Amino acid sequence: MIRMAVVDDDPFVCASLETILNAQDDIDVVAVGASGSEAVELYEKKHPDVLLMDIQMPEVDGLEAAERILSEHPDARIVFLTTFSDDDYIARALHLGAKGYLIKQNVADIAPALRAVMAGQSVLGDEVAGRIATGVEASASAGERFAKMGLTEREIEVVELIAQGLDNTEIAAALYMGEGTVRNHISAILQKLQLRNRTQLAVLYYRA
Q1: Contact by Cβ (8 Å): 2, 28
Q2: Per DSSP, what are the bridge partners of residue 33?
Q3: Helix-strand-coil percent breakdown of the chain, rounded to 5?
Q4: Could you give phi then psi for residue 28, rounded to 5 degrees?
């Protein structure tokens, strides 16, 4: 029996998922929550086999909740179920160690995906897999393209780590530089590429 926790700030979505999943012979929804902070609390109390969670939620979002849970429980199986197939969300989710990223419209895929996760696999919705495949193909030449846009080799290294979902502290550690230097690099990169924030930068990396 797969012990499930479902976390989504939409009560209708939670109720629907609970009904759909409990109808499966091998799935039991043992906890339901409505925010990222509740997800962390529920995981500590129930230790579900799989946590199925939305990303955009009030107070603490799903990505932050996943980061908190995985820092204490590296083996936690977290699957995101969201309406957003945003490139930056996907990159951050996979970097954190999520076991899956599914789109809410594809309800029939949820139960098989959960079984696959329990079997040790990682799962991606068809739309997400397509975006990742396109991104990987594009990113192979992203460094060369960013170089043509005027970025230095060091700046391109920073861009690659941002695209992987790393924060400034993690980038500083990976590249053996101070956080202030990282911030300076990011400011210079955004100015050169005429972008507003690192999210746009991550998306550009996968679409470059």
Answers
A1: yes
A2: 7
A3: 60, 15, 30
A4: -130, 115
Contact of 145 with 208, CB cutoff 8 Å:
yes
Structural tokens at position 95 = 């970097």
Residue 208 has pLDDT above 70, yes or no: no
Q: Which pLDDT score, from 0 to 100, does residue 11 have?
A: 93
**2-126 under CATH 1.10.10.970, yes or no:** no
Separation CA 124–CA 136 (nearest Å): 15
The single-letter code of the amino acid at 79 is: V
With 60 as the cut, is the pLDDT of residue 139 above it? Answer: no
What does the pLDDT average to over 6-27? 93
CATH 1.10.10.10 correct for 136-207: yes
DSSP state of 196: S
- The ranges assigned to domains in the chain are 2-126, 136-207
Rounded to whole angstroms, how far apart are CA atoms 90 and 85? 7
In sequence order, which residues have a C-beta less than 8 Å from that of residue 52 and are 6 or more positions away? 4, 5, 6, 7, 17, 79, 81, 110, 114
Q: Which of 3, 39, 8 minimizes the C-alpha distance to 21? A: 3
State pLDDT tens for residues 28-41: 999 999 999 999 99
Kindly give the residue spans of alpha helices, DSSP state H, lying in 2-108: 11-22, 36-46, 62-72, 87-96
Asked if the model's pLDDT at residue 134 lies above 90, the reply is no
